[in-house]
Amino acid sequence: MATFGNNRNGPVAMDEHESCQRCGERGSARNRSKYSKRTSSPGGTMSISITAATKVTGAVPSKAVSYAVEDIERDLKATVSPSEQPGADIVLVEGPHNPETWEVRVSDGNLEIHAGDDFGFIYGLYAVSREVLGVKDFWFWNDQRFTPVPAIEVADDFALTSKPTAVKYKGFFINDEVLLEDWQVDNDKDKPWRLAFETVYRLGGNMVIPGSGQRGEPHLKLAQDMGFYINQHHACPLGARMFAAAYPGVQPKWPEEEPKFEALWREAIEAQKGKRTVWTLGFRGQGDQPFWNADPRYATDEARGKLLSEIIQRQYDLVQESDPGAQCCIYLYGEAMELYRAGVLTYPKQVAKIWADNGFGRMVSRRQENNNPRVPAMPTNDGDNGIYYHASFYDLQAANHTTDITNDPRLVAKELEDVIVNGGDDVWIVNASNVKPHVYFLNFIAAIWREGTIDFEKVAKQYIADYYGEDNVDAVFDLYEEYWKDAVQYGPNWDDHAGEQYFNHVPRMLITQWLRDNKASAEDLRWMHDGRNLKEQIEFYRGLIAPAVERYADLADKVELAAISAELRGEEDAAELIRDSIGVEVGIYEHCVAASVHVCDALLAGYEEDWQHAFYDAGLASDEFTAGDHAMRDREHGKWAGFWRNDCLTDIKQSAWVAEQLMGYLRCVGDGPHYFQWLRDFTYPEWEKDVYVIMNMENHPTDREIFEAMKAKWGK
Description:
Mean pLDDT is 92; it is low at 1-12 and 19-42. Helix content is 42%, strand content 11%. Helix 16 (534-568) runs antiparallel to helix 17 and helix 16 runs antiparallel to helix 18. The protein has an eight-stranded parallel beta barrel with strand order 9-10-11-12-13-14-15-16, surrounded by five helices. By secondary structure, the chain is α/β, with parallel strands linked by helices. The chain contains 22 helices and 16 strands. This is Glycosyl hydrolase family 115. Residues 1-46 are annotated as: Disordered. Keywords: Hydrolase.
């Protein structure tokens, strides 16, 4: 493994998911979603008991370790019922250990966790939670239920030992976190973040970016207190305040405002120096875009690369001046990748390169607007390398933000394994967004950062067994397999499968362009189809997505059948999780794809001046988008109340609203200016609708009332 810059006794990559040497009956109980009493290992070996009297004792925990202690105390209450039975303690034993390593063993009638640093104790505590108490890594996000027992028996020969991991620094970027930010647990808005960070540790991670840009500031202290290495958003190098926020009204230009930029950098360095920080160097424009978008003076790759190289060097010098030996990295993301490949971007050799996927799981540069060069972004085994990888992506085009990746997970896993082979093992920062919608993929991504390579099907089925139960493994696995197979492929590459944004942003863009100018092509959709006019683009889009309507409807039926089958076996928890996970995702696609087809039909009917059918299809589109929103909102039960409320990026409810605006326009053109004919056509009896003694005897109906009358007459 490459050494990451000047390590300063930084982490040795170790696996929080330990090797189990001798674990009594731990293996046989691994797949139980509800934990029962454990017994000693075969052969009569003695055991200790974990009971309500069990406490965490021994070495005084640091602030970071105390969070993990609180969690295991919570887990003890969830898995062990109150009783008078005495129990063994969980004892923290500090001693010589390599960084991040640990060992769990039974000794002197207690369960001991041996470690030499914060990370070792944290990982050891979560290992006990998982392997002894049965609390799974995604227990919170997958609603794992527990049946407390009076005692959990642990054999005297029980032992767990950490082992090396494939990646040194690894963790989540909680990005585009609009669902988490709007939600709370136990009336506490910080608790979702606390639980997200706990999940990173449970998966063996040690680093986070605690939110998007300035939005992450409220959560930075919690992440630092919990002991994580902190990395920074590529749009906010060094964790500095955004220039536009610090200097409202001042144009963020270089070199004119160099002193102001440097003041912000120094401020950020001073605030974080000496802490566990992996410093991000770089320079992007305000709003997470290339800086030259707002400064056309930098018109060539050479000029852009020269400026970016100078700024990176200056930032590096400032960091080393205040925090000698600190780890630094640059994100080869978007335009930075293109400049690097063009040979015009330079950087200090001690700086690690963070390569980025395109947002769809492929290690090539991302599409930006209509520009999609697909520059190879696989690490190159030279120096220190890492990756920025997306389990969630927001591109206002075709990505997945509220659903799982729609590409073949085997190919995603292979791409990540190739990253390891090509030396990208120093830093992995995974865009986990709001966590819950992406746990299926996050599970196996984390398995790769631990192991370096995986058997995808084995990992996936173990995950399903852990959370859905053994009886549902085949059914749920097949649902996820069909999920990516049913996805719409909009391009020639294996990673060109459409996420839910393709069925929300694209129809909104088509409607907007049709209302502005229905003859000219939508310039911002040339990446989708470079048609001669808008009508060609609409016809192309409709032809591509229409076959998926039936596929997703069939898959929705299969999801419900799997849930009902689980219920018939008395597995209500599994049925609920099926509907809450793959069921939500499929429901979003089922309704949003159907809605998008109706949008196309409405616009195409508009070209024919068939205003009534255009209006009707726009109404059907609005209804389907609303059903897509309900696919999320209807699964907000218990602690999940309000979780999906702030879907404001894909924003399915906005798609319904835009379709309703189209309805209003179409009715204005087709039924205005006096708005009586459609009332007569759809609410009057046949003998009366053409009798015009008085135009109408009733209040003019709303668009929705006319639409409902159309549905009654046309039978849809």
